[in-house]
Specification:
By secondary structure, the chain is mainly alpha-helical. It has 8 helices and no strands.
């Protein structure tokens, strides 16, 4: 981003960007712990994910306040204003990703508290890795202000959506063949939907990077070719 006459203004903007990345790191850690706990049945780890959600919320509130102060005191314009607005939108998505991690942890507790009875054999690791990779790439694009990397994240969302639909079809098949699996299938469905939503939020964050750097809004691009045209 361009430097300003006021070095203090530069420092404030950089501090906000750095805190966004810290929040992203915390949210990423929450997701990894929730998924690990889901796989291993570590109920204490799942409880920690649930209990630590307040840390994500507190970071969002703090960053919101900092952005409000920058707008009030500095009256940013052009690229500076886009940066502040992109930060406000990004931290909202990060907070919601934290909520999805908490949801995964809660579903994991239910699944393992039931002793994994009537649990269908279904692999979630691939779609989870895809969504987590999207989040990491979106944060990296934000850190480096890399528009090309951000657009790659936007394109990847379709793959996560396809995986989710495949999981949904498998779960429907399990429930039709054995009604005893319905409860566990629904819990897994909530987990899969949470993972799919993480991908959606990562996509949103990547779109904010494009807006922040170039002032282009790609949120409602119809398809990949339209994204390339933009």
């Amino acid at each position: 981003m361009p430097e300003h006459i006021s070095k203090q203004f530069d420092a404030e903007l950089e501090a906000v960007r750095s805190r966004v990345l810290q929040m992203g790191g915390l949210v990423e850690e929450q997701i990894v712990k929730a998924l690990d706990g889901l796989g291993s049945g570590d109920l204490q780890a799942l409880d920690r994910v649930i209990d630590d959600d307040h840390r994500v919320n507190a970071m969002e509130i703090g960053l919101d306040e900092s952005c409000s102060q920058i707008i009030a005191r500095r009256q940013p314009a052009a690229g500076d204003l886009r940066l502040v607005m992109a930060v406000i939108k990004t931290i909202t998505d990060l907070e919601r990703v934290g909520d999805e991690a908490e949801k995964i942890a809660r579903m994991g507790k239910l699944i393992h508290a039931a002793g994994r009875m009537h649990l269908p054999r279904l692999e979630l690791k691939h779609v989870a890795n895809l969504a987590l990779s999207m989040l990491r790439q979106a944060l990296d694009a934000f850190a480096r202000l890399d528009v090309n990397a951000a657009l790659q994240v936007v394109k990847q969302d379709r793959g996560v959506d396809d995986e989710f639909r495949s999981i949904l079809r498998q779960l429907i098949t399990f429930m039709m063949e054995d009604p005893r699996t319905i409860t566990r299938c629904l819990e897994i469905l909530f987990v899969a939907k949470a993972i799919e939503r993480i991908g959606d939020h990562a996509k949103n964050m990547a779109e904010y990077v494009v807006y922040m750097v170039e002032g282009r809004d790609v949120r409602h691009a119809r398809d990949e070719s339209h994204i390339e045209e933009l």
